[in-house]
């Protein structure tokens, strides 16, 4: 898919210098926004260093991503593991510079990086700089801030209204360069014609209400969008440096294979009992480990007695559950099977066939356990849903036995 990218930055109305940095590497497909912090202009150094390190490795990253794309599933796993290492290396460089230069002690930076390849894109981020996606007439916040207020909101300690004006709103819980090591979140997003990505520092997202930003993102495009958003943030007070990068996927005449896009996947997940309690950004994290399978009518999906570690969600079509020649039930869109494979390796209890041409979303146990390890809050909510599901099944069984 063909992309166009635009960007701009402004010191705002309060700061006398700009500690933000951006990267528009159109040749290698690397797009970055970084928001530095630290005294004596050290934040400017930190944001520049992370951008320079990503720029230095952009060609290698792009080449590796293209090579890995021959096997889409394995390529995604590789990219989600490999790309954060570039930011981890930048973290070590910034930390080392701060240790050797007393005037730069404590400097750090946020970062968001977008790397498109083929018909998909990868996002890595640390801190409270954000990535938004404008698609199908709505604006969606893809990344989740690494901030104290976001943590409190996710844990139910404050409301969304309280979060918007919380006195500790700008206190971040992760930062590049402050510690010897940093944890980097990585996300996977499909690309669709007409998509528009916005990468911004909090100098933009804090100044503009979501509704205003959505209106701009849907109504304007390209450099006009960049300049208008920065202008509006300055009109609103410009309390911080303001940076915006816009990456647009061109509309194309040729047909592309229909896929369940990320926004639809998020909606779909929230209708499944396991994920019903997850917020939007938490579902985006689950999207990292969702893999799509397509089966023709009458194809066997699972064989009774075989061992497997996959949990299946039916997106379209219908599958049949059989015990030998006995048809037990049919499962249509929104249904699921094999959930206990996420907990332990055990033989499949039935045969599963595609009764019609069908599309399935698949989660493998190894990917699920890794997600739970890196995102404990997601794990707690999913396990609570599992326990409720088990309790409901035991209750139903007990009711049938007692009749």
In brief, what are we looking at here?
With 403 residues, the chain is α+β, with helices and mostly antiparallel strands. 37% of the residues lie in helices and 27% in strands.
Looking at this protein, list some descriptive labels.
single chain; Jelly Rolls; 403 residues; 2 domains; 11 helices; alpha+beta; Phosphatase 2c, domain 1
Q: Using the coordinates shown, work out and report the CATH topology of the largest domain.
A: Phosphatase 2c, domain 1
The chain-level structural class is: alpha+beta
Q: Quote the average pLDDT.
A: 92
Radius of gyration: 23 Å
CATH hierarchy, class of the largest domain: Alpha Beta
Report on the structure:
The protein has helices at 42-68, 72-100, 148-154, 160-164, 202-205, 210-219, 222-235, 262-269, 280-287, 365-374, 376-402; strands spanning 3-10, 20-25, 30-37, 108-109, 111-117, 120-126, 130-135, 138-141, 185-190, 196-200, 242-249, 291-295, 300-302, 307-308, 310-316, 319-323, 326-331, 336-337, 346-347, 351-354, 358-364. It has 403 residues and is of the alpha+beta class. The model has no long low-confidence stretch (mean pLDDT 92). The protein folds into two domains: 3-249, PPM-type phosphatase domain (Phosphatase 2c, domain 1, 4-Layer Sandwich); 262-402, Jelly Rolls (Sandwich), CATH 2.60.120.
């Amino acid at each position: 898919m063909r992309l166009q990218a635009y960007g701009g930055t402004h010191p705002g109305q309060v700061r006398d210098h700009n500690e933000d940095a951006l990267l528009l590497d159109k040749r290698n497909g690397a797009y970055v926004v970084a928001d530095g912090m630290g005294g004596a202009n050290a934040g400017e150094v930190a944001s520049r260093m992370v951008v320079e390190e990503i720029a230095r490795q952009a060609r290698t990253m792009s080449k590796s991503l293209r090579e890995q794309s021959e096997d889409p599933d394995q390529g995604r796993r590789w990219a989600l593991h490999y790309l954060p290492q570039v930011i981890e290396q930048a973290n070590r460089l910034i930390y080392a510079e701060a240790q050797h230069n007393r005037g730069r002690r404590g400097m750090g930076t946020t970062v968001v990086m977008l790397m498109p390849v083929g018909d998909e894109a990868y996002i890595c981020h640390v801190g409270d700089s954000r990535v938004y996606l404008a698609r199908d007439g709505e604006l969606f916040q893809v990344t989740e801030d690494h901030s104290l207020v976001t943590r409190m909101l996710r844990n139910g300690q404050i409301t969304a209204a309280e979060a918007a004006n919380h006195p500790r709103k700008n206190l971040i819980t992760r930062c590049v360069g402050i510690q010897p090591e940093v944890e980097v979140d990585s996300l996977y997003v499909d690309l669709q014609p007409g998509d528009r990505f916005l990468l911004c520092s909090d100098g933009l997202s804090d100044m503009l209400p979501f509704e205003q930003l959505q209106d701009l993102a849907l109504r304007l495009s390209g450099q006009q969008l960049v300049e208008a958003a920065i202008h509006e943030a300055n009109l609103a007070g410009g309390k911080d440096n303001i940076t915006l990068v816009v990456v647009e996927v061109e509309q194309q005449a040729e047909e592309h294979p229909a896929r369940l896009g990320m926004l639809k996947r998020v909606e779909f997940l929230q209708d499944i009992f396991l994920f019903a309690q997850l917020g939007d950004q938490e579902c985006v994290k689950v999207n990292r480990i969702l893999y799509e399978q397509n089966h023709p009518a009458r194809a066997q999906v699972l064989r009774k007695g075989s061992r497997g570690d996959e949990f299946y969600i039916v997106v379209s079509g219908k599958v049949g559950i059989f015990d030998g020649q006995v048809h037990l039930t049919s499962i249509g869109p929104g249904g699921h099977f094999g959930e206990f494979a996420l907990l332990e390796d055990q033989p499949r209890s039935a045969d599963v066939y595609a009764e019609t041409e069908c599309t399935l979303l698949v989660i493998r146990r190894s990917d699920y356990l890794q997600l739970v390890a890196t995102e404990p809050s997601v794990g707690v909510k999913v396990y609570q849903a599992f326990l409720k599901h088990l309790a409901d099944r035991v209750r139903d069984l007990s009711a049938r036995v007692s009749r």
